[in-house]
Amino acid sequence: MNSTNMLVVKPKNYNSGLTDLSFCASISYSFVEADEADQGADVIIDVQGTETDCRLNKSFQGFEGGFSQQVLNRTLAQTLIHSRPKGLLLIGLCGCTLDLPRIAAFLNVPVCLMLLEPLPDEEAVDEQVHAWMTTALKSCAVVLASKPLVRDSSALCWQSMFSDDSSADLPIRFDQMVVPGNHPSSAYDYSSYEFCQRDHALLLRMQQGDANHFTDCKQVLDLACGAGIFLQCLATEGIKAVGVERNEAIADYGRGMGFDIITADALDYLRRTDEKFDGIYCSHFIEHLPVEAVQELLAVITNCLTPDGVLILVFPDPESIRSQLLGFWRDPEHVRFYHPELVTAMATSSDLVLEWSSYQSQPHRVYPFSEFSKPVSSISPAAEFEDGGVDAAQQGWLDKILGGFGLAGSTRLQSLENTVENLSRQLSELSSAHASSIRQLDERTERLWQVNETWAWNDNVTLKFRKRD
Predict the structure, then answer these.
(1) Which terminus of the chain is less hemmed in, N or C, by CB atoms within 10 Å?
(2) Is the Cβ–Cβ distance between 126 and 95 less than 8 Å?
(3) Nearest by Cα to 310 from 337, 347, 285, 364
(4) 197-362+457-467 domain in CATH 3.10.20.600?
(5) Does an H or E element contain 404, and which?
(6) In the CATH scheme, what is the code of domain 6-187?
(7) Mean pLDDT per 10-residue segment, the chain (469 residues)
């Protein structure tokens, strides 16, 4: 087979057995030391035609971290959607590639996985990573091993995933794996947008701090939890939690990460459940609802909270310029912005008490500025110094005698004193003008920085409520 409608993902320097094959696209990855990364970026991507080269921090090699390791997910999803291959050849498995089989399966692309190294034993990874590995391998249509990789662990069943002949010719395996018509659909799918176009590693970092609000909680509910990113944040802190997600495929993906996720519409679940929670997390959900639905949401949330229970609401800040101009309208299901004061008023009517607000903790001062800036006062250059000396007619006989010995007489000394005095005056004037210019520049810089502060407001608002006891 000299050509194939396949996408290959491989280590950058791996080319064994691929010289006779051509691919519709390729993604190569390599690992670099932390100080080689560009300003600490998770991944540096260079795209040349159909070839994508990714350089990643070495921390993404290991089988740990869950969502924090998923730095190649978006790159793969976008490449699959763009190139629409009939299959994916994934060579090698490590932390940053472990989730790629599930991304491909989510987009209906079969995966052939070639394992280059033994996978870690079950005892070497935690329960969540174990579930993640198992689900990822079961998402593959074909798994090949370049060397015997059979483990004794019955739970993972590595052996059952290998062909009896793991040394079979790779192109033949492609023929067996690729099913005509299996490729990403060209139709728009909101779940694909929501799931594949977002940076899970970045979202994990953004939400980690919110877990601190639930430190004393015994059972937390994450509404519209998506793939379970915040459930991982809670699990890291040892907090028991369950999520609710309406999309079956995304909920199933999260369950594959080892999380407890119920497939249901969030409002429907809250209306019918008899469960009570001492903590509820609702992040980036209310902007998807009209006002009446938000009022109902707050009411049913209050009903599901235990007395003194905690509710954390996170949503876009309407006073954030970045949210208004750069982010909010990327999501086709966003309905409208909600101001934190409006949300607080609605929550108060539902017997919730505001305990903390990120909006109130960050000053939102707007500084006025002129459309046209005043020019900074200019500094005139000093007159060029010329020492014309003393005219001979002005010199007395003593001056002439001293001059003959190379010494300055009183007339010459007086002339030099006048010159020094004149230069000193000019220097003082220049120094004052320079100081004035520096003050004007400082004032202008301070004003510009104050104006720039309006761009630094948080994109999101976090409100912490507690149910009245």
Answers:
(1) C
(2) no
(3) 347
(4) no
(5) helix 397-404
(6) 3.40.50
(7) 74 79 89 64 85 91 82 90 89 91 88 83 76 85 63 38 42 43 53 70 89 96 95 95 94 90 97 97 97 97 97 96 86 92 95 95 81 72 57 61 64 74 84 87 84 85 95
